[in-house]
């Protein structure tokens, strides 16, 4: 790194410029990742917090399974419950609707979940109330309704007492509200549904695929079953595409910069080789230089993302976690180094003979 | 000592090959400046490139002390250069981002030698900056030095790792007569002081008094009537 450090200092302006570009791309990637994470959490955190190892959805005769159309009837439930290897099969109803703080006429959009009280331990199941006249609210539902434990919540013509307020759980951008299966079926029918549960959360280790085939259902891990959520797919898909494109842009920008920079230095590299520099030491110098530039740019960008992310806390769906900050930063570094490695061809192919000048 | 034995070097030239060095045998003893002269295109630089292990000859041996450089891989040749060979190019070929002193220190950074080696090089760098009269300019970058000063730094760099062989290609071609003469005198003095086997190429003999012997090359062939100068 002897020459690399001195080059960095000597050509300060150029390196500051490229590090700033890297920082800007990091800020963009960071914001997109945070926003994606925030939106995703608002979309699916309740689905990921369902009990069980896998989620069973009804497989329609045509097309892909979907949370909005899936209905788990008695036959399906019975087949899964009795399949060898199944420890527990919990039918869960999900439907979006509106709820209001009891005397107030203004309703807010929420997602109703219906599952039995004490069925298993999971953030959603923990909220399941014991009585049919009770309701469990996720954190944001309680805030939106402006109610506390013991207050009343009106849904349709029914009134429910708030029995518990729990984790921050969301489904399709609406906060989760948990009812007993009976109350949920009533709410679903009032909303025009058939009162049949939406998914079956299954715990155990049955022959997943053969039971699914026999019952015309599709079974997936909670994470993979998210593709059955239309809003999730379209939202996250386009954001993820933008992030991927930014990753590509950053690799290209860094690669192009270091390729041009190294080509400009081809003469110096030939001289160093003629003086006896090992190719290894020259490669270390070149990659070390890219790493310094990347670390500076990405570090700065990350600081901005974390700073702004903390400042806007709550104002936007923005998720600040290692998954949305450190992971993209790591990917940027790796891709940037890959771009920088592009320039190494100039290093390895430089002919020390050209340093003699007089000889062609 | 540099000892070239029956060295032939050819370059591809259309369908045939151009013979740049034609069966040359030549010895450059320690502590002497062995001059090589000849018209332009006669193969002087090619011969130097072979002696400097920058290119492998088609046939023949290139002894640097007791190592046959003609038999080395490029990696081994690079290691030999950073340990045993000093090269002064026609242009000073300094690195723009390094100060005069750092141009010398970089010789300790080219391989994987340890701290001891680095300290030795640092000590010798100060000594050599003094020897070429540039201690006062040690912190300057090449852009702030004159042509003659740059060439002096290049000479100091070529000697900082205490090489046994010093190879110099037309060191005065970019300098006026007085500065050229100073540079030649410097090379002569350092060669004798430090006992390096110096091979120096020059196309004009204006500074011939700095050479201990002169061999003339014509069309890649050495005339073996070496002139020993006073
Ligand atoms: N890399 C090369 N490729 C092909 N031909 C070369 C190369 N280097 C030198 N030559 C040819 O070899 C001959 C000797 O060149 P050179 O050693 O540079 O001569 P000098 O240094 O005496 O002027 C010339 O005809 C030159 O054109
Ligand atoms: Mg020449």
UniProtKB/TrEMBL annotation, chain A:
Its main location: membrane. The keyword Transmembrane applies. The chain crosses the membrane at residues 239-263, 291-312, 318-344. This is ABC transporter permease. It is a multi-pass membrane protein. Residues 241-351 form the ABC3 transporter permease C-terminal domain. It is found in: Cell membrane. Pfam families: FtsX. Keywords: Cell membrane, Membrane, Transmembrane, Transmembrane helix, Transport.
UniProtKB/TrEMBL annotation, chain B:
Residues 2-230 form the ABC transporter domain. InterPro entries: AAA+_ATPase (IPR003593), ABC_transporter-like_ATP-bd (IPR003439), ABC_transporter-like_CS (IPR017871), ABC_transpr_LolD-like (IPR015854), MacB-like_ATP-bd (IPR017911), P-loop_NTPase (IPR027417). Pfam families: ABC_tran. One of its GO terms (molecular function) is ATP binding. The keyword Nucleotide-binding applies. Keywords: ATP-binding, Nucleotide-binding, Transport. This is ABC transporter ATP-binding protein.
């Amino acid at each position: 790194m002897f020459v690399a450090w001195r080059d960095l200092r000597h050509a300060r302006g150029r390196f500051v410029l490229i590090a700033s570009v890297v920082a800007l791309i990091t800020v963009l990637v960071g914001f997109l990742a945070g926003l994606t994470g925030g939106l995703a959490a608002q979309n699916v955190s309740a689905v990921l917090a369902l009990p069980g190892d896998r989620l069973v959805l009804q497989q329609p005769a045509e097309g892909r399974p979907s949370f909005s159309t899936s209905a788990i009837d008695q036959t399906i439930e019975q087949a899964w419950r009795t399949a060898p290897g199944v420890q527990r099969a919990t039918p869960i109803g999900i439907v979006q609707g509106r709820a209001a703080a009891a005397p107030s006429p203004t309703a807010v959009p929420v997602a109703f979940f219906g599952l039995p009280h004490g069925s298993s331990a999971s953030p959603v199941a923990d909220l399941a109330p014991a009585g049919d006249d009770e309701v469990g609210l996720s954190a944001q539902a309680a805030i939106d309704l402006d109610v506390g434990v013991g207050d009343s919540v009106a849904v349709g013509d029914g009134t429910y007492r708030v029995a518990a307020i729990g984790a921050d759980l969301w489904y399709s951008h609406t906060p989760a509200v948990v009812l007993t299966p009976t109350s949920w079926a009533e709410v679903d029918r009032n909303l025009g549904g058939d009162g049949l549960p939406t998914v079956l959360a299954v715990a155990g280790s049955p022959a997943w695929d053969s039971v699914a085939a026999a019952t015309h259902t599709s079974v997936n891990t909670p994470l993979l079953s998210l593709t059955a959520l239309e809003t999730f797919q379209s939202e996250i898909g386009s954001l993820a595409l933008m992030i991927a494109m930014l990753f590509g842009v950053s690799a290209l920008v860094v690669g192009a910069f270091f390729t041009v920079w190294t080509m400009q230095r081809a003469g110096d590299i030939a001289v160093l080789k003629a003086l006896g520099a090992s190719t290894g030491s020259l490669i270390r110098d070149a990659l070390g230089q890219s790493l310094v530039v990347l670390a500076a740019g990405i570090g700065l960008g990350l600081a901005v993302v974390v700073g702004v992310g903390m400042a806007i806390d709550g104002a936007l769906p923005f998720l600040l976690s290692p998954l949305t900050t450190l992971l993209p930063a790591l990917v940027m570094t790796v891709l940037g180094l890959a771009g920088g490695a592009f320039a190494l061809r100039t290093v390895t192919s430089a002919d020390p003979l050209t340093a003699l000048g007089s000889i062609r | 000592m540099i000892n070239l034995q029956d060295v032939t070097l050819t370059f591809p030239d259309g369908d045939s090959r151009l013979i740049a060095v034609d069966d040359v045998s030549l010895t450059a003893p320690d502590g002497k400046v062995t001059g090589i002269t000849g018209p332009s295109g006669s193969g002087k630089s090619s011969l130097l490139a072979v002696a400097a292990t920058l290119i492998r000859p088609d046939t023949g041996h290139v002894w640097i002390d007791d190592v046959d450089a003609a038999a080395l891989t490029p990696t081994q040749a690079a290691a030999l250069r950073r340990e045993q060979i000093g090269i002064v190019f026609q242009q000073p070929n300094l690195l723009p981002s390094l100060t005069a002193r750092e141009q010398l220190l970089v010789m300790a950074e080219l391989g994987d030698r340890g701290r001891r080696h680095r300290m030795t090089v640092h000590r010798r760098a100060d000594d050599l900056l003094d020897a070429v009269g540039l201690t006062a300019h040690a912190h300057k970058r090449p852009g702030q030095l004159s042509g003659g000063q740059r060439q002096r730094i290049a000479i100091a760099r070529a000697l900082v790792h205490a090489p046994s062989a010093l190879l110099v290609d037309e060191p005065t071609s970019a300098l006026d007569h007085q500065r050229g003469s100073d540079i030649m005198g410097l090379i002569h003095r350092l060669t004798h002081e430090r006992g390096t086997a110096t091979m120096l190429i020059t196309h004009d003999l204006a500074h011939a008094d700095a050479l201990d012997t002169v061999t003339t090359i014509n069309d890649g062939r050495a005339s073996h009537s070496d002139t020993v100068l006073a």
